[in-house]
From TrEMBL:
Part of the 30S ribosomal subunit. Contacts proteins S3 and S10. Belongs to the universal ribosomal protein uS14 family. One of its GO terms (molecular function) is rRNA binding. This is Small ribosomal subunit protein uS14. The keyword rRNA-binding applies. Keywords: Ribonucleoprotein, Ribosomal protein, RNA-binding, rRNA-binding. Pfam families: Ribosomal_S14 (PF00253). One of its GO terms (biological process) is translation. GO terms for cellular component: cytoplasm; small ribosomal subunit.
C-alpha cells in the first residue's frame, strides 16, 4: 500500500490540472502563434510561468486505484501488476484466468 499522503497529493494535482487546463491551453496557443508580436508572446510566457507547477498535466503520476502503487501500472485496467494478479487469481477481473502448464 502506498503512502496516503502521496496518493492525496496526486489527487490535488489532478484537480489543479482540471482547473488550469483551459488557461494553460490559451496561453500556449498565444506563445506558439508566430504571427503575434514578440512582446505579447513574452507576456504570455510570463503568465504561464506564474501559474502553479502542479497545474501541468505532466506532473500527474499514474497510480493503481487499488493499492496506490506508482510503478508497473496498466492504463487499460488502472491498476498495478500486483493488484491485477491478486484480483485475477480471485476471479474478480473478467477475462483473466491463471495460466498453468
Amino acid at each position: 500500500m502506498a503512502k496516503t499522503s502521496a496518493v492525496e497529493k496526486n489527487k490535488r494535482r489532478r484537480k489543479l490540472v482540471a482547473n488550469h487546463a483551459a488557461k494553460r491551453a490559451a496561453l500556449k496557443a498565444i506563445i506558439q502563434n508566430q504571427s503575434l508580436p514578440i512582446e505579447d508572446r513574452f507576456k504570455a510566457t510570463l503568465k504561464l510561468a506564474a501559474l502553479p507547477r502542479n497545474g501541468s498535466k505532466t506532473r500527474i503520476r499514474n497510480r493503481c486505484e487499488v493499492t496506490g502503487r506508482p510503478r508497473a501500472f496498466y492504463r487499460k485496467l488502472k491498476m498495478s501488476r500486483i493488484a491485477l494478479r491478486e484480483l485475477g487469481n480471485l476471479g474478480k477481473v473478467p477475462g483473466i484466468v491463471k495460466s498453468s502448464w
